[in-house]
Automatic annotation (TrEMBL):
PANTHER family: PAC DOMAIN-CONTAINING PROTEIN, PHYTOCHROME-LIKE PROTEIN CPH1. Keywords: Kinase, Membrane, Phosphoprotein, Transferase, Transmembrane, Transmembrane helix. This is histidine kinase. The keyword Disulfide bond does not apply. Residues 520-568 form the PAS domain. It comes from Mariniflexile gromovii.
């Protein structure tokens, strides 16, 4: 094996290498800086030359203005003014160039400002000169001469500024030439120094590497001798890649002699081959993934392997460690440890069998004892917005939790798991519970619990139930002390047996045990009493028990029993028996099959459910009577809807005809009485219609559907548009929720409440109705029966009408109850009763709050879970 792959440089060499790199970087940066300074000096010299050229262009530009020939050209071209415009454009270009070149010099920038003004003044003077030339008079000639003098003065000022700028640039040129010469002479020296330093570093590095190579050879010899004496398998692999640069296997580069001692593989024969081809400790792609994980993630991976070598089972505890360009795998022979575990497991099973023989005096008592001796809890999943489980709600926990945590079960129910047992999120228990729910599989795990400074270990089993998990936990710390506790347990079994007997008597239950192979049966004392016998008065058996079965139920009883024996799975079954005294009783039986000492045994419980069945029969009779009464009510509804309304319609029809034909012959008193008759008939019709509506409100939930109350409100406002418009009522509403219910009942509820508010409006104020919405807890509802619900939709109808006294808050919901005379306000007194019945039909609550001459509030609560 070549150790160049696993060699790591010494700290001294690494430090020297870092120092050398730093020195090289420093010298290189100094040289680079020197070159950049030289380049910058050259650029500054070029920049000064550019300023020289621009000043020269300026000189040429203003010199044209001194030329008589140029002035004549201006005068000749006065029609198009093309020469003058070109001249001005040339001046502007020169000034822009100077501004750019002198932007880094405040002094030069200050001189350019007056220079710009002077050039503009020069252009203006040249223009005036052109105008003066256009006329031929003595005064004009004098003016022309005056303009020329002004032009010359302007030109002299421009020359003065130009000369000062030129003098400054000459001074800068001298300074920059000196700087450039200094930088140019220093650069070659820096380059030569860098070259010598690099050569020195390379020579030192060569000797250092050579010395380390000698050390590696010594270390290689030492490591080979060390690997030859170890008792562990030590191999070194390098990855084998495919065309997509993915690892498909590992190549064995080194294998020590322990491969021959344990696996019968010659190291020289397997070196150069791949692990999947020749190595038994990595014989599948699943095991190869662990090597790939170790190599790619640069982490240690521990795994155990069981293999067969020459017909003998062997176990190896292996450690894969990423090293250089491969993976170093060390395998320790753990066969003696595993064999010891197997022996320990066998002894443990033998001890458990002995314990079962002591504990199984009675199968039913054993099952009950198991349920009592374990901590049983049920948690409901709490999910976040993304659907993932973030916590659990504790729905059930038995009394065995108290000795462990000191908490009573009722104190921790309905609380979150994170509040009661925060350590579950640190110990990994939360992940086990989530896996049980999400993967729908039984998860077993052990968890420690610190109580009063001592550690107790609990073995737990988590089983999914609905969208939650049931956890059964037992204290396994007591296993070491089980031998001593078994003696105490036998003493308490007598007491528990007595308690069980009393419990059977109180609950009217009995228990039985039936050995299927010998047909020997055992039944509890209370079972004898349920059959009308004293305990042990007859020898129990399956055939003997059939004699008690009612003849009409015997065939069904035999079928259920045959099916249970065939499938070895019992189902709950109810049948009749005839006791010793001749009384007929109903028994309900359930049980299970268990294997006891190699024999199949059926254990079960029998309960006397005679009273329950009789109560159910009485309930059926009551339901039948209720159906008959409902039929009578429906018959009354038909009579009310047709037979009662038909005479009223005729009375109303003929009264209106008499009024149309004979009204002129009526006296004033007769007209008043006749009007009262017509109003009474209309009121009677309205009363019958409201009674029908009240009686037809169906309490069934089968026709419930999802309702948007905002749409219901819009429909009601449209139906009541005329009343709202005539009364100038203003309706303000929050955004209302969606609930499950009956659409037409919701429309009737909103119609009655809004129409009621409009009817009982105040004479002094413009009617205003507010419909407010919020969420409310059950504690806010003044009905004790509502405490079991979680949240409600609270919808408040608030008006500014005449209101009412709070003492009448319950009375107004009764049928035919009115707080005002019918001459004051029309109505039948049934509207609010209909509202209350509709709300109750939706499992809701309706309350009223009133203040006389201020207004009224009608508050409706709908359960939120109906959404």
């Amino acid at each position: 094996m070549s150790f160049k792959h696993i060699y790591t440089s010494s700290k001294t060499y690494i430090v020297l290498l870092l120092i050398a790199i730093m020195l090289l970087l420093v010298t290189t940066s100094m040289t680079y800086r020197q070159i950049m300074l030289t380049q910058k000096s050259a650029e500054m010299v070029v920049h000064t030359l550019q300023v020289y050229n621009a000043l020269g262009d300026l000189t040429t530009h203003y010199t044209k203005a001194e030329s008589e020939e140029f002035r004549e050209d201006l005068i000749k071209d006065k029609s198009s003014n093309r020469v003058f415009e070109n001249y001005k454009l040339e001046g502007k270009t020169i000034l822009d160039s100077l501004k750019i070149l002198t932007h880094d010099s405040d002094l030069q920038k200050a001189r350019i400002k007056p220079l710009t003004a002077l050039l503009n003044n020069l252009y203006s003077q040249l223009t005036n000169l052109d105008l003066a030339t256009a006329q031929d008079s003595q005064e004009v000639l004098q003016a022309k001469q005056s303009y020329k003098l002004k032009i010359n003065k302007t030109l002299n000022e421009i020359k003065s500024i130009k000369n000062r700028m030129l003098a400054d640039e000459k001074r800068l040129m001298q300074e920059r030439k000196v700087t450039y010469s200094a930088h140019k002479s220093l650069t070659p020296s820096m380059l030569l120094l860098l070259a010598f330093f690099a050569l020195f570093v390379f020579v030192i590095s060569f000797f250092r590497i050579y010395n380390n190579k000698l050390k590696v050879r010594k270390s290689e010899a030492f490591l080979k001798s060390l690997l030859a004496t170890t008792d562990n398998i030590v191999n070194y692999y390098e990855p084998v890649l495919n065309g997509s640069n993915e690892i498909i296997d590992f190549k064995i580069l080194y294998a020590n002699d322990c491969n021959r001692d344990y696996l019968g593989l010659e190291p020289n024969d397997i070196v150069g081959n791949t692990v999947l081809k020749v190595y038994p400790l990595h014989k599948s792609h699943k095991e190869l993934e662990e090597l790939i994980k170790s190599f790619q993630e640069k982490t240690k991976v521990i795994f155990d392997r069981q293999i067969e070598v020459d017909g003998k089972q062997m176990w190896f505890h292996s450690l894969a460690t990423p090293l250089a360009e491969g993976v170093l795998v060390t395998g320790r022979n753990s066969t003696p440890e595993e064999e010891a575990k197997q022996i320990e497991l066998t002894l443990k099973k033998r001890l458990e069998n002995q314990n079962l023989k002591l504990l199984e005096n009675r199968a039913l008592l054993t099952n009950i004892f198991k349920s009592i001796s374990h901590i049983v809890m049920h948690f409901k999943s709490i999910r976040g917005n993304d659907g993932k489980i973030i916590d659990f709600e504790i729905l059930f926990v038995n009394d065995k939790i108290s000795p462990v945590t000191g908490e009573m079960p009722d104190n921790i129910k309905s609380k979150k798991l994170s509040e009661v047992f925060p350590n579950t999120f640190k110990s990994g228990v939360f992940e086990h519970l989530v896996n049980a729910v999400e993967d729908d599989k039984t998860v077993e795990y052990e968890v420690p619990y610190n109580k009063d400074g001592s550690i107790q270990w609990f073995s737990a089993t988590a089983i999914k139930l609905g969208d939650g998990v049931t956890v059964t936990t037992s204290d396994v710390t007591e296993e070491k002390e089980k031998a001593e506790e078994l003696i105490k347990l036998n003493e308490t079994l007598v007491i528990q047996n007595s308690i069980l007997t009393d419990a059977e008597r109180i609950a009217k239950t009995g228990s039985f045990l039936w050995y299927l192979d010998t047909h020997v049966s055992e039944i509890s004392d209370n079972y004898y009493r349920m059959l009308g016998y004293e305990p042990k008065e007859f020898e129990p058996s399956f055939e003997k028990y059939r004699e008690f079965i009612h003849p009409d139920d015997l065939e069904a009883y035999d079928k259920v029993g045959a099916k249970a024996l065939k499938e070895l799975r019992s189902t709950e079954h109810t049948y009749r028996v005839i006791t010793k005294q001749g009384a007929v009783k109903y028994f309900k039986t359930d049980g299970q099959f268990i294997n006891k000492n190699g024999s199949m045994v059926m254990v079960g419980v029998v309960q006397d459910v005679t009273q329950t069945i009789e109560a159910e029969e009485n309930l059926l009779k009551s339901n039948l009577e209720l159906k008959n009464r409902n039929a009578e009510l429906e018959s009354f509804n038909r009579v009310a809807s047709h037979d009662l309304q038909e005479p009223l319609r005729k009375i109303q029809l003929f009264a209106l005809r008499i009024q149309d034909f004979e009204a002129e012959n009526f006296s004033d008193k007769s007209k008043e009485y006749f009007g009262k008759v017509i109003k009474a008939v209309s009121r009677m019709q309205s009363l019958i219609e409201n009674l029908l509506a009240y009686s037809k409100i169906n309490l069934s939930k089968s026709d419930f559907e999802k309702i948007d109350l905002n749409q219901v409100l819009d429909k009601v406002k449209e139906d009541l548009a005329a009343s709202i418009h005539n009364s100038e009522t203003k309706i303000i509403s929050d955004k209302l929720p969606k609930i499950k219910g009956v659409t037409f009942q919701m429309e009737q509820l909103f119609t009655n409440l809004i129409a009621n508010a409009i009817k009982y409006k105040s004479a002094n104020e413009t009617p205003k109705i507010q419909i407010l919405y919020s969420k409310a807890s059950a504690s806010e509802i003044p009905d004790q029966n509502s405490k079991g619900r979680q949240q409600f939709h609270k919808i408040s109808f608030i008006d500014n009408g005449i209101g009412f006294k709070q003492e009448y808050a319950e009375k107004i919901f009764e049928v035919f109850q009115r707080l005002h005379q019918k001459t004051e306000y029309s109505g039948t007194g049934i509207g609010l009763a209909i509202c209350k019945k509709i709300v109750e039909n939706h499992n809701g609550y309706l309350t009223a709050i009133g203040t006389e001459n201020v207004g009224a509030q009608f508050i409706v609560y709908f359960p939120a879970q109906h959404e």
